[in-house]
Amino acid sequence: MKTIIYMVRHGESPYNEGNERTRGLTPKGKIDIEKVTKLLVGEGIDIIISSPYTRAILSVEGLAEHLKLDIKVFEDLRERHFASNIIENVELMSSIRESFNDPNYTLPGGESNADCQKRAISVLKPILKEHRGKKIAIGTHGLVMTLMMNHFDPAFGLEFLNQLKKPDIYKMQFEDLKLEEVTRMWNE
């Protein structure tokens, strides 16, 4: 019995608005998410799940409204925490690269790729088991999405992360806990 996960990476989000948890979507992000909703509304999705971050919830909210489904929010699907203090983009990119070389690498006060992957997979595996045979959309973020996909197939690494768009959609087909196929659905 096939279970389908639609990983929906959030739309474009303004970096200067609010904090990691509360920032929303840019005007372009909102328009793109309307397209995401139109793309997914006919897929027969049974369940909608999201990271607790506003931009991820907003990225599946239109779909939830169309399908008259609630969004189940899981704290452990949040994006990876990089450091205890604000870091510059150059340092962040260097840290992300290093994290793929050494999954236990982290900046002071931050979270490693290994820890982030472990916490996200501790949510995803029970979802796959509990909702076997269903179609599930997950509002997510680039790095945590890459790490969840990487758990099932190591081909999803830094190169994959670097080519992601905002938004982006990947359809993952599972047989039990075995990933059988991945298809990119967003091509804008």
UniProtKB/TrEMBL annotation:
Pfam families: His_Phos_1. InterPro entries: His_Pase_superF_clade-1, PG/BPGM_mutase_AS, PGM_Phosphatase. CDD domains: HP_PGM_like (cd07067). It comes from the Bacteria. SMART domains: PGAM. This is Histidine phosphatase family protein.
